[in-house]
Amino acid sequence: MLATIIPLISLFLIVWAFATVIRSMQAKSKIRPSAGKSLPEITEDRPSLRSIALRDQLSTKPYGKELAQSLWTRLMAAKSGTGLVHEFHKEFCGHGLIRMDDDVILADIYDGGYNVGEPIARWTNERDFVSFFARQSDFSCSGWDESEPVFFSNDDWYRNNQRLTRSAIDRFLKT
Q1: 19, 50, 107, 171: most buried by Cβ count inside 10 Å?
Q2: Cβ contact 34:42 at 8 Å
C-alpha cells in the first residue's frame, strides 16, 4: 500500500510545484497599474519616459565664448569636407560641423561622415559662429529647446540622437 501512496504523494507535490511556478510567471508578466491609477497612454506625439529622463540630465550651461572660439579655430584648421563628426558607423550618425571651402555647416551626418546631408545652418564668419555657439548648451543642441530653431525638433527619435555635446566638442578639440 505504501508503494502506491508514496508515488501518488510525490506526483501531487510535483504538479503543485509546477502549477505554482506557472502562476507566478503569469502574474509577473501582467502589467498592473497601482491602485486607482491607470497607465499613461503611449502615443506618437508624446515623448517616452526614457527620453524625458535623458532630457532632464542634459546640461543647460552655455558653452561660452572661449569654447566656441576654440571650435571655430579648430574647424578652420581642418581640411575642407572634414570636421566634427563624433559618431562613425553605418547610417545616421547625428549632427556634425563640417568645414567647407568658405564656411562651416551644421548638417546631419551619415555613414561615418562619408555622406553629409543638406546644411541645417551655415556660418561664413567667425563672429557669427562664436556668437551662436557661445550661447548653446547640451540641452539646446539636443533639439529639446524650442527657443533654438536651428536645433529644435518635435521628433522624439531625432531629439538628442547623436547630437553635438560639450564632450564631443572637447574630444574634437583634442585631436
Answers
A1: 107
A2: no
Rounded Cα gap, residues 127 and 77, in angstroms = 17
| Pairing relationship of beta strands 104-110 and 115-123 according to DSSP bridges | antiparallel
Residue 95 · residue 120 · CB < 8 Å:
yes
Q: Which residues pair with 98 in a beta bridge?
A: 83, 105
- Residue whose C-alpha is closest to residue 140's, from 150, 154, 130: 150
More confident residue, 135 or 16: 135
Segment 46-105, tens digit of pLDDT:
667 777 777 778 889 999 999 999 999 999 999 988 887 776 667 677 888 999 999 999
**Residues 98, 105 contacting (CB under 8 angstroms):** yes
First to last CA, the chain: 85
